[in-house]
Please model this.
Amino acid sequence: MRYGTSRKTPTVGQWLIGLCLFLTAWLHGVAVQAADILLIGSEESPGVQSFVQALSELRPTDRVRFQPLASLPAPGKLPASLRLILLDLPSLDWRLKESQGPATLVLRISRLQAQQRLAGAQPAHLSLLWSDPPLSRQLQLIRRILPQARRVGVLFDQHSEFMLKELHLAASPFHLEIVGQRWDNTQDSRPLQAVLKNSDVLLGLDDPDLYNPKTAKNLLLSSYSRQLALVGPNAAFVRAGSLASTYSDQRDWLAILDDLLDRPPASWPRSLYPGRFKVLSNAQVARSLSIEPIDEVSVATELAEGERHP
Amino acid sequence: MSLGPSSTRSSLLLALLFSPALLADDLFLESESLPQVLTATRLKQTPAEVPGSMTVLDSELINASGARDISELLRLVPGMMVGNISGNQAAVNYHGTNASEARRMQVLIDGRSVYRAGLATVDWSDIPVAMEDIERIEVFRGPNTVSYGANALMAVVNIITRHPADSHGTRLKITRGERGINDFYASQGLGWNGGDLRLSLSGQEDDGFDSDRNGADYRDSRRLNRFSLAVSQALSDNQSLDWQIDAKDGTNQRPYTYHPVFSGITAAGNNSDVIAKDYAGSVRWNLDVNPDHSLYIQGSAQHWDRQQVWRACDAEVSFSPQLTQLWQLNPNYTERLARNMPRFAGPGAPPGTAAEMALANQVLDQWRNGASQTLCGDIDQSTRESRYDLELQDTLSLSDSLRLVSGMNYRYDRADSETYFNGTLDDTTWRAFGQLEWRASEHWLLQGGAMYEDTRLIGSSLTPRFAVNYLINPRHSLRAVYSEAIRSPDMFENNVNWSYQVTNLQPAAFGQSSARYFVKTRGPGDLDQEHIRSRELGYNGYFAELGLALDVKLFYDEISGMISEPLRNNQYIASNANNSRFRGTESQLDWRLSQIDRLRLTYAFVDAEASNPLDQQFSARNSGSAGWLRDWGHGWNSALFYYGDNALNGYRFERVDTRIAKRIPLGKAHLQLAGVLQQRLDHQPTTFVDNNYDERRVMYFSAELEF
Model:
């Protein structure tokens, strides 16, 4: 009986499915037509080389190549079919000289750097892929690993101040209170003391004026001496003594790029936080703060699910 | 989100991250070299992991208590017995022993031991540290010579001052109140590239207690000034240097307490005040060899100067060479004679050996021939004590679950006093210590260590310590601790050579304006260390969802070879003949009910039993404290504390302290106004019969400007 059924003429539905499959295959064929991908940076470091190599392996049908910034003409002189991937700020500066030119993905740019360069504008020819973790994700991480924390201390300066409003908005669904504290002179530790005094956890913004190798010691030792955890601002800080942070590494970015490059440039978002990320925690710091060991994989999975079904 | 990253991949990634060479290869991970700050050697144990009982008095609590003295703060520590010998002499001991000599506790300021080199006591009021400079006080309740060195017999009080990097800006504070309270504090902190500094000046004044047992004015006020400079300087990424200089200068009033030995003497001096100066300096060099290995070398020098010259009056015969000889033959016989001269003046010397009676009759002849006249002269009871200390401590994290702390210490103590030591006496101490912390599994933490100490005057000793913590989870643990500790007798107890050379005698004694008083006391010179064996079972837990921290312990401590004889110059015969035993329970609860309320309770039940009744005097059977701190918003804060001891040296102590404070922003500055009211609930003297206040209530106010 079952064999008999399969020999029947196809129904309308089956015709439609077949058509869809054909169209998808055709569209895909268009997309996989060899694209010309040009990565641009001021210099070709070993890190850049390995990234270009990894991307070209991921997209064997595309022509993936790197060219140093110095060797390039003005952006408007490049063919419009090209896809540009910018790897550093000098190349962004170069790209910003002209709005003409190929569609461009900007990697390794933080919100703060974009604010300084673009003053809040998001040019139509650029797709900014944020290097810093989204604030709501970091807040969600706090909720997950420090469920008792209510007051989230945040240090900022004149450059990072613009993120505060967004932070307040992001905090309200989690019932977290943002305790903002301006810190313009990092050699004066009073603002740091003040924010530690009034918070349950410190959230680090990716602001290199505040979070850098010079301030790391004071920040981490002061917060630790008050038995307060620092969350963020990035993976390197976790290694130095921050409790945890979400982050995206090269592997995540390659997957994100692969997805974007499959799509027509017209559908690229003006800006994007990485949808793929991991959680990194410092087990020794967690233990010393009486916090249960953090299962990085399951926490990352939970956060991702939380973002999909807020 | 990466699709199904396996845990091996995550740990591989972690390994990659922790290797800086590979870190640089990932374009998206910060390649800037960031030092590992919170290294395995810098991270501390959690409360649940501590191999013993610990009470931490944090800055919020210190501030809210309104206390003007470190000793007063220690009332917040369960089992700590806090009393007063006089208004400017606190007596603090853990669990008890003698009320007038608290010598069995180690007290450290930033790792520097501050008990006096010669007399092994702690002059709490003279410690050259202002309350405002204290970041927190960690009290280790139990013996711990392994970590803190000799004298950590019953407990360790570790006073940690605010780090210069946390003290930036200017603070000015004045406190005024009843009972002559008049304090000030001023500090300036600043930072530069890689360094920080804090300079503070402070002063304290009050009248002490109001009246003695007879209702007369009690002479026990104090007046002091302090100077403190702390500097921290980073030398490189892995090296830093911290140094401090502290000084204190002040006057402590003492009543005239000399009672003439001979009858018929009515003239008297009016005080025996002390000018007390303390100086201390220390340097610590910290080196992080790598994230798993760090060490420090700390050198310190301290000097205690107690100038105490007072005028005393007694009969001329006090300076009789024959009476001095007789004292050396038989102090009991001599005392009986001396106190009853008029009675023996007629019938002649009381019965004794021939030599004793012959000398006694010569003394009686002198008495009859005018040596009963009153003489007054200056007694110099000054002491100068110095200590030089050098310590090396090494912390090595052998693996994720094994940590070794070891070190060596050299100490040189010197005491200089004509009266107590007939000149100068010194001692050297060598010490080596090691403690291993082994996390056997997720739940079991084993810690053990030992200290070897050798002092030139006393000899050597080895003390072990073991603790097992069972961690139910990272926040809750059960513990069992066995420890031994020793206390070396101080120079005074063992080597006292006590006699008074009285100067400026008027009229002259037997033709001399300077003469030696007949009483002379010598220490035995062969005392052994006191030895404690301590057993403890405890629970420590933190209920994060409630914000509640709890610690409960049961203890059984035995001290043997105890030196209990009071330090008196007539017939001081010290021995190791005594022993005592303390058993009971202690608990402390710290509950942050909400962001604005904090509740804190402590209670101790101590059952003390001692072969010398004096050693039972300073143990309150029931003692404790209760505190409620609240932040009312709009800058208003309040704190309410209750302290109670059912009997300290026989007297009940109950007091309620209230502090209300208002913080007012003034542009970039802050002004804090606070009022403290302390109300005694009992009607008894404080610790000793002469310590009485006219009013059971005292109020004082402070204003502090911070900018």
Remarks:
- The longest strand of chain B covers residues 274-290.
